[in-house]
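$ ./design --mode recover --in tokens.txt
reading tokens...
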């Protein structure tokens, strides 16, 4: 009888301790995603800082660095998986994919626009830049907020807190 009780207790212990990811697993998953998000946002900020100086070569380098950060982010995100983490992972993937798309399109147009010599820069060029920037910024901010919202959902569901 002792043997049967021992086996039942052992099975119960194994079952209870192997029921999926722990709180710490979710925190680790979140932290890894945030590290990729921060790398991407830092590269965005670096690019936008070059916009203020109008140095064409620095803008192109920063744009290339943003593209590289996006590719690194994509590869890192693809390797991360946890039960219940698909929506959070997808929200960062959406942000990353938008930024990668933008580095091939609207951000190139913005760099070209800001590379126009001062003497040739017209009010139409300034207005065009403003429209491009507003479009890009609005979409990026929306996707960043979607990631933050999904992060809160995961934190609430798995009993951990997001520190800002």
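writing sequence...
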């Amino acid at each position: 009888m002792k043997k049967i009780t021992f086996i039942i207790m052992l099975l119960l212990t194994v079952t209870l301790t192997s029921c999926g990811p722990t709180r710490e697993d979710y925190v680790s998953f979140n932290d890894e995603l945030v590290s990729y998000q921060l790398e991407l946002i830092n590269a965005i900020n670096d690019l936008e800082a070059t916009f203020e100086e109008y140095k064409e070569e620095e803008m192109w380098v920063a744009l290339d660095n943003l593209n590289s950060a996006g590719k690194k982010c994509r590869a890192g995100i693809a390797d991360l998986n946890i039960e219940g983490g698909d929506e959070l992972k997808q929200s960062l993937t959406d942000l990353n994919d938008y930024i990668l798309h933008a580095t091939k399109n609207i951000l190139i147009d913005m760099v070209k626009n800001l590379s126009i010599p001062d003497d040739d820069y017209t009010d139409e060029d300034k207005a065009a830049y403003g429209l491009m920037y507003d479009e890009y910024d609005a979409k990026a901010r929306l996707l960043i907020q979607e990631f933050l919202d999904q992060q809160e959902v995961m934190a609430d569901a798995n009993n951990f807190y997001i520190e800002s």
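exit 0
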